Amino acid sequence: MPAASRESAWLRAMPWVFVLIWSTGFIVARYGMPNSPPLKFLATRYLFSIACLLPWVLLAGVAWPKSRSQWLHLAVTGVLMHAFYLGGVWMAVKAGMGSGLSALVVGLQPVLTAIWLSSTGSSVTGRQWLGLVLGFGGLVLVVSNKFGAGGPGDQATWVNLTMAVVALVSITAGTLYQKRFVQPCDVRSANAVQLLAALVVTLPLALLETESMQWNGELIGALAWSVLVLSVGGSSLLYMLIQRGAAASVASLMYLVPPCTAVMAWLLFAEPITPTTLLGTAITAFGVSLVVRAPR
Question: Is this prediction's pTM over 0.90?
Answer without folding.
Answer: no
